[in-house]
Amino acid sequence: MRLKYLPALDGIRACAFALVYVAHTGLEGAVPGGLGVTIFFFLSGYLITTLMRAEWANTGTVSLSGFYKRRALRILPPLYLVMIIGWMLDWFHIPVHQATGLGLLSVLLYFYNYAALLNHGPKEIVPLGLNVVWSLMIEEHFYLIFPLAFVVAKKRGIPAGRFARMLVLVCFAVLAWRFVLVYHFKTLLVVTGGWTYFATDARFDSILWGCVMAVGFNPWCGDINPFWDRRRGLLAIGGCALILFSLAWREPHFRETLRYTLQGIAMLPIFYYIVSAQGSWLSRALAWQPLRWLGWVSYSMYLCHAMLLYIFYIYVKWNPWLTGIAVAIVAGGFAELVRQFIEKPLRQLKRKKHLEVAVTN
Predict the structure, then answer these.
(1) Containing domain of residue 57, as a range?
(2) Is the pLDDT of residue 193 over 70?
(3) Closest Cα to residue 6, out of 231, 206, 165, 221?
(4) What is the distance between the alpha carbons of residues 278 and 234, in angstroms, rounded to a whole number?
(5) pTM here?
């Protein structure tokens, strides 16, 4: 199986980051930054599961060691660089000193989201602005388990449709757990501070919905689904309407239980339309080159943007609009340097090793 590169996926990543960034500039009440994170999660699950499907189709296996090596080379260098910068600034009280040894350990060992929750707040143990790594913790917890589950399902010959249904059941089990957390344990009902927002056990279904599409009805892999194909435009509109509904209903119990499930379901037809209708106006718009560039650098920008916003707000004291523009420029410049001098060389190294293995075999 040879996957065709889809530029629109870069554009989706860019839009997700833009939602998060604009919300963090002080517009949380008007811009749904949480939706941006959920889109990130869905895209991650869809993309990585699709790549595993292709690897299995081409080789008859999925190299788990290769998967984790590639992920480490992609995730860790920018993360460690931003961590080092953040801790140096924190050491000199720029803008404040609040980080602890537990904070450093929690990021290095990927339990920061739980450490922050048990420490009564996500901003108290890491340098100011580095709390955005909570979402990365959820992804890494998920990918410790899911690739193995995928391989086991393949080796046991579980049909794709059945496996997809099993994943849907897990998604609804997580929804049930959120109801238990909210109605039985009375977890904190705030959009950016509660267990149902930060904890892996209550949020990993946002990634899993992307896996459902990648496994069960994936046009990128050539899956044919007449029902979805004939109605993809109408279904995509319905998905957009469902997302708008999930954002409009502000009741806190709904927002911390059903909201994530409805958004995951809504993204299925939206992503299906974008991936299957490559000539559509939406896919062409998402493939716009400046948008694609933002998608390429979005990970590094995500890691550093909150830290830069805090520094600008405290020391520069411009109005929020100028601050948002200035920080976007600075963060974009930093992310492009990371891309040119860290990510690209590592990508070339991975390709070189892959060719060496191919020649040896």
Answers:
(1) 7-360
(2) no
(3) 221
(4) 16
(5) 0.94
